[in-house]
Amino acid sequence: MEITILGLPQSGKTTVFNAVTRGNAQVSAYSNKPNIGVAKVPDERLVLLSDLFKPERTVQAEVTYTDLPVAPQGLGKTQGISGEYLNMLQRSDALVLVIRDFEDPSVPSFGDSVDSEADLNTMFYELVFSDLEIVGRRIDKLESNKKGLKAQQLDEANYELEFLSKLKQKLEEGVGLWDYEYTDKDMKLLSGFQLLTVKPLIVVINIGEENIGNETIIEDKLSGSFSKSKIITTCISGKTEMDLSQMDEDEEKEFRDSLGLQTESGLNRMLRLSYGALDLISFITVGEDEVRAWPITKGTSALKASGKIHSDLERGFIRAEVISYEDMKECQTLAIARERGLLRQEGKDYIVGDGEIMHVLFNV
Ligand SMILES: Nc1nc2c(ncn2[C@@H]2O[C@H](COP(=O)(O)OP(=O)(O)OP(=O)(O)O)[C@@H](O)[C@H]2O)c(=O)[nH]1
Ligand SMILES: [Mg+2]
Is 66 in the pocket of ligand 1 (CB under 6 A)? Predict the structure, then answer.
């Protein structure tokens, strides 16, 4: 699963990328290669389970982030997004849009002054225009190919044309396709187009250090204009989080406390929200060697989930022993859980839930 970070020039994309991946990509260097890094998804359940099982290692779920290089000429000037830049956005499963909301005279602002609301609208329009282009091209192509079609193909083409016209209308109204209600057939058609305003979007408002503590007010102000189910808004102080991400754990905690940062850092919240936006949940395996979170899409069966661990487990799957995180926390040991009958036996079609601890019995 991949998330791509985009935004206007100098909005803090690379800074956010570094904070998320604990990486050291050069901030503000005009490089034309994307930065690619892995972010570990925070999960307090792993902390408690590691306390119980004292494993050799604890492994968090991971998501890949890409920080796109300097926006191509025209980005932010409502000319739509195109070329390789567009391809990269289309390939990703979700988008993180970084919006500048920090004052810093040494960093030139995109407009006359720092205006997060205007920047957000600008970027929304960029995404909408880019989709409008794609939809428009597809409509033209279908129209011009219609002549030679046989009856059934013509029906299909007409269905698609009707669907695309509805999308086009929405886009022309300036709203994205985030909240459009799609039928299963629509979804199938849609998957071929890789439209940007269909992908989950996480808007990250990059606030200045001086606004730490005002996150809720800022979020409410900006998200009011687009309450859409597939768009999530969150504030982070990019620069602070980047500095914090370079520290060791104790130092980071001390610094966080001294800043009076929220109990859950904006960064963790962003990582958690992005994970959810990808429709991912985690199941957990426990043992002396390893306590580990495994990402699966919501609705995954025990059989498919076991295949994430190893293909042998899927091939030779017998059954799974499953316990909820809450029950595990209560029982403290698997022996007690078993005694109390809380370790359930589940078959291959069982739909694995978030945070469930699973042990797969198999035979190959
Ligand atoms: N004061 C302050 N400065 C920031 C913050 N975030 C980023 N900056 C600064 O803004 C400048 C641009 O940050 P980058 O992270 O390179 O921004 P970018 O969007 O990746 O820039 P390009 O890739 O060049 O478009 C750098 O000098 C950062 O140090 C912040 O939260 N507060
Ligand atoms: Mg950058």
Answer: no
Q: Is residue 347 part of a domain?
A: yes
Longest dimension (CA), the chain: 71
28 Cα–ligand 1 center, Å:
6
Give the amino acid at 250. D
Q: Is the pTM of this model over 0.85?
A: yes
Which domain does 142 fall in, by range?
126-196
**Distance between CA 286 and CA 300 in Å, rounded?**
19
List Cβ<8 Å contacts ≥24 apart for 112-119: 116/205, 116/222, 117/221, 117/222, 117/225, 119/8, 119/11, 119/76
Supply the DSSP string of 215-281, one letter for each residue.
HHHHHHHHHGGG--TTEEEEEE-HHHHHHHHTS-HHHHHHHHHHHT--SS-HHHHHHHHHHHHTTEE
Q: Look up tokens 């036996």; give the residue.
A: 345
pLDDT in tens, 192-236: 899 999 999 999 999 998 888 888 888 888 877 665 667 888 999
| Domain contains 284 | no
Residue nearest to atom 21 of ligand 1 (CA): 10
Amino acid, single-letter form, for residue 307:
G
Domain boundary among 181, 196, 211: 196
Output the six-digit token pair for 12.
């803090």
Two structure tokens written together for 197? 């305003």
Number of domains forming the structure of the chain: 3
CB of residue 64 inside a 6 A radius of ligand 1: no
Q: pLDDT for 283-307, tens place per residue?
A: 999 999 999 999 999 999 999 999 9
Q: Within this chain, do residues 33 and 180 fall inside the same structural domain, yes or no?
A: no
- The string of DSSP letters for 119-149 reads HHHHHHHHHHHHHHHHHHHHHHHHHHHGGG-
- The answer, yes or no, to whether any atom of ligand 1 lies below 6 A from the CB of 237, is yes
Strands 2-7 and 62-67: parallel
Q: Are 168 and 99 in contact (CB under 8 A)?
A: no
